[in-house]
Structure formats: structure tokens, C-alpha cells
Prior knowledge:
By secondary structure, this protein is an all-alpha fold. It is built from 15 helices and no strands. Helices cover 66% and strands 0% of the residues.
Amino acid sequence: MSLFSLRTALKAGADKEQAKNLQRFFKTGPGEYGEGDIFLGFKVPVLRSIAKQHLDLTFDELQNLIESPIHEERMAALMILVLRFPKSTPEEKNKIFKFYIKNSKNINNWDLVDLSAPQIVGGYLIDRDKNILNKLSSSKNLWEKRISILATFQFIKEKQFDTALTIAEKLLNDEHDLIHKAVGWMLREIGKRDLETEEDFLKGRYKNMPRTMLRYAIEKFPEKKRKAYLNGTI
């Protein structure tokens, strides 16, 4: 399958009404985090089905897609990489990882980050040096910061919590709501596997962390404990 065939499939399945809804949902207006993003109007399962039919696209073709102003084209490129990654050779995984990092600024909405950072960045770094995540977490780019914390989801699944907690600490006072949500989500995932570790992190910090971050982190706590955290009485 070719890049032309993928774009033909996307053009054929475009839904203008759905596109309008998605552009509102993903905050594409002036001054919003997704400003200027263009949507065709696809649902994720349909787009994934198209991506599965184009797993053999070259890196040059994927580069063309990842630089596209059209959201679904960038998403298709990422889906292809995510689907290829687990079955790739170590050399190919290295190439996918480097491609991803090189194009991190094009992975520029939260859904693009969330569907790809754990599998590709986290998957590649699981048994490697993770210093690049510290670099990404210090970026001025919102999406690189979200990549840094979402990548740790793969480590959390393996009950490796240290990197996630280090990145969470660095992002604790970030100003953006999308970072608050991401950090809170990863803290909650740690708590699902080791509640003591999550609470050890929270107890010295919860009074000063952003409210949204705290709410996400304690979402699964028993009601009495959740209210105690929210009321600052732990």
C-alpha cells in the first residue's frame, strides 16, 4: 500500500460534521492548545483500520504524514509506528524511536501523545537510560512535556515507578491543565499497583499540587480518604 492509497482512503471517509465537532473538542481555536489543527472527521477505530492496511509505508512517507497539517494524517503515521514497533528488530525499534523524538513537536495534541508515547518512547526506554525524559520534561513545548510523563506509563505497568515519580516531581508546578491531568493520571496508575508508593509521594505534596492533578491522582480512592485529601486533612 502507498501513501497515495492512504490519503485516498482518508479523503473518501472524511466527515465534515464530525470534523467540526473534533475541532471544537481538541481546542483548535485562536490561542487554544490545538490552534490551527485541521480535522477530516474520523473515529479512532476507523483510522486504525486504515493504518493497519499501510504498515509498509517507508520512513520518507511517514515523514510526509507526520509533517501534515491534517490531524488524522499525523495520527495515522503514529498508529503505523505503534503497530510496527513490537514486531520490529532492535535496529528498527531504534530507528522508530529516533524518528519519534526528531518529530516530537509534530506530535502536537494530547491524543497523539497518549496513543504513542507509552508504546514507542516507554517501550524503547524500558531497559535503557531514561535521561532523555528529563530533557523532554524541561522543554518549553507542552507536548514534549506530556510525552515525558506519558512514556512512564510503560514503566509503571512493569512496576518501575522511580522515573515516573521523578518526572512527576519536575512537573508538579507546571502551569498547563493538560500536564496536571497527565501527571495525576500516572500517579493514579502507580496507586493501582502500589498504593503506598503513591501516597508516600502525595502526602508531602498534595496540599500544594494543582487541584486537577490531585483529583486525577486520587480518583479511585475510597470516598472518605478522597475527601480528606481534598480538604487537606490527611
